[in-house]
Amino acid sequence: MRPEAHVSVAPAEVRDTPLAKHAAERLAPGTYALASANGRPRLWSYANRAALKGFARGVETGRGLEGTTLVEHAFLQARNALVDALNVLVERVIPDVSFLAVHLDHHGLHVMSVGDSRAYLHRGNKTPQRMTPREGDPLGMLDGDPTHVTIAAEPGDLVLAGSASAFSASAVGRVASALQNDPNVPPAVLAALLTEPASKAGVGAVALALRIR
């Protein structure tokens, strides 16, 4: 199976200034990490960068691992990297990060998340299956409890994932309409449809669209 994916990131607007509240990184074909910081805006990019670098390091050091074990290892490295980065701050209020990892391998499709993130599996004409908790966790990587879901992947599967802000009613409606008109809409188009409403609203978003060929 071959993944075809695209990530779209829209900055948040703070006092008419675009800031990187959301970020993402592609570690390998089929392996993606998405981060959304909270707390003081000036520390958003700092926190996101630490978490993403930690996850990337975990993927690199976990080359001998597979499936769930690899994702959990990389996730722990991401959390440790965030903690280390925050420990050097003198801030009284520190940021936290909602984090979502998507990994496709021969074991299946793995989604690990903490915080208020979303991931949905679209398969044929079936109702999309949510792969993250329905009740968004207000806690992030520092104090939240990560959840992990693994499913057997099939050719034609479509995964839409991202920050909660990427799944507004407007964004979901636009994606549903696009898929109804053409089930093979390119991932780049779907990811952009998810983030555009959040971009216009100034809240920012990050979204991943991954189709399995």
- Specify the helix fraction band: 25-40%
The CATH homologous superfamily is called PPM-type phosphatase domain
User: What is the fold-level CATH name, i.e. the topology?
Assistant: Phosphatase 2c, domain 1
Tally of structural domains: 1
Q: The biggest beta sheet, please?
A: 5 strands, antiparallel
Work out the radius of gyration: 16 Å
Q: Which structural class do you get from the secondary structure elements?
A: alpha+beta
Q: What's the helix count?
A: 4
Order of helices and strands, N to C?
EEEEEHHEEEEEEHHE
Q: Using the coordinates above, name the CATH class.
A: Alpha Beta
Number of strands: 12
Q: How would you describe this structure to a colleague?
A:
With 213 residues, the protein is of the alpha+beta class. The chain has a single domain, classed as PPM-type phosphatase domain (Phosphatase 2c, domain 1), CATH 3.60.40. The strands form 3 sheets. A 5-stranded antiparallel beta sheet has the order 1-12-11-8-9. Strands 4-5-6-7-10 form a 5-stranded antiparallel beta sheet, covered by helices on one side. The chain has a two-stranded antiparallel sheet with strand order 2-3. It starts with a strand and ends with a strand.
In short:
With 213 residues, the protein is of the alpha+beta class. Helices cover 31% and strands 34% of the residues. The protein has one domain (3-212): PPM-type phosphatase domain (Phosphatase 2c, domain 1, 4-Layer Sandwich), CATH 3.60.40.
